[in-house]
Amino acid sequence: MSETVRIRLRPMGVDIDTPRGTPLQDVLFSYGVEFPCGGNGRCKGCRVRVIEGSLPVTPAQETMLSADERAAGWRLSCQCRAEEDLTLELAQWEAQILADTSAFAFTPRQGYGVAVDVGSTTLVAQLLDLSRAEVLAVRSALNPQARYGADIMSRVAHAVEPAGRATLVKALRKHIGKMLGELLEAHPDQSRTIHDVVLVGNSVMHHLFCDIDVTPFSHYPFQPETLAQRAFTARELGWNLPGDPGVRFLPGIGGFVGSDILAGVLATGLHRSQDVQVLVDLGTNGEIVVGNRDRLLCASTAAGPAFEGARIYMGMRASTGAVSAVHVKDGHLECRVLGNVPPRGICGSGLVDAVASALTLGLVKPGGRFEDGGSSLMLCPPVKVSQTDIRELQLAKGAIAAGIRLLIREFGTTHEQVTKVLLAGAFGNYVDTDSARRIGLLPFESAQIHPSGNTALLGAKIALFTPPETFDELAGRIEHVSLSSLDGFQDTYVEEMLFPPAFNSNE
Fold this sequence. Notes:
It is a single chain. This protein is an alpha/beta fold. It has helices at residues 24-28, 59-64, 67-71, 152-159, 164-186, 203-210, 259-268, 348-360, 387-411, 425-430, 433-438, 455-463, 469-477, 489-497, and strands at residues 4-10, 14-19, 22-23, 47-52, 74-76, 81-82, 86-89, 112-118, 122-129, 134-142, 194-201, 230-233, 246-249, 277-281, 285-291, 296-302, 322-329, 332-337, 345-346, 376-380, 383-386, 420-424, 449-451, 478-480. The strands form six sheets. A six-stranded mixed β-sheet has the order 10-9-8-11-13-12, sandwiched between helices. Strands 23-22-14-15-16-24 form a six-stranded mixed β-sheet, with helices on both faces. Strands 2-1-7-4-5 form a five-stranded mixed β-sheet. Strand 20 and strand 21 form a beta hairpin. The longest helix is centred in the C-terminal third of the chain and has 25 residues, at 387-411.
């Protein structure tokens, strides 16, 4: 018997040879299969269909998959090993990863630098010519830690297990080092010297790159011991880069508000604004900053992963086969599918659109229940939205809207007095703002809302031209607010979970 087996992924046309007995999770992650529950068999996010060969049905699969699904060959790949040759049906999930091409003011330097946005889901790195602030090469990838859980708290749970933190730290450092090597290969220059590498990310990514204990994130009050700026050399991290450059992970602000938000404040110039502005990063942990040049407040909200398609019955990333937009046409729902292929699932922007459209048609009540008392809404076969999906969206949007409302109140202003609402991150730039307003996620007028791109990456690039102490000073100016400690937090959260009963798209 051969010691290797061959796995054929269709319709991608990819053949993989792997040692017999290899967990499918280890094989398939690189090809876009997500493991939202960390591979624990508690969701359906990693389903694959067996075309040739066989995969046994485990107790977890009997619980999660219906008899019809099992009979059709569907399996939870996280529960399976490659014990024989297999042909698996797998969508070509190529995630939309938000890079940045914004121009910015800078003082020229010699040599080259690298800016890295260390996201929970995706990593983006750019190589810059520091004499011109010109981006020479870009690399993006899935965060390798995602195989241990799609959301931050799943990573924290894994990190507090024996050897868990070391596994996550090693995986992240190794993968970023590989990306930096690919940047250099993409723009060969024998005389090149890398002078500086700047990384930004949320508080947990800060800890899991810098090898800091994440235990404080696992229990209330979720306050890390430190979010200070950390410095390394490339060699210390196991990276073979010309010039052995310094590597800086910028400081966080407090709680779950990390250096990605600090970089966003720098990139948008919110800290220099005379008017009150709001910066919102919509993700698993929605981060919010309210303020101007005189005062800055920040907070994080446990929005959950619904905006990224996780914990949604047919949820997936914004990639090939995902329903990414839903609109009302002639009294019916019309879907747009990424890649112009048959629909396979729905991503966060599609979910927001679907619920907004259903509210417009009167198919969903302000409380979130279906008008007809049913348990799901068919969008475009086989993709549908379940009652549980709507509740997940309510929890997510309620957390964000409540956070915005409370932080604006704490600042001492009103929604009407906010001049700009700056949306950071991939979801904030892909979501339809009218749909976001219709479900009550962004309780502002259209003219106030401004998608702002990948502000974390832009801020990291600006940091290549900025003295390190600037960031410690800026972080010290921003007041971190624990929303749960504010009066009326729970009542506000419950109120914001409801959908607005009416909506005027021409506001």
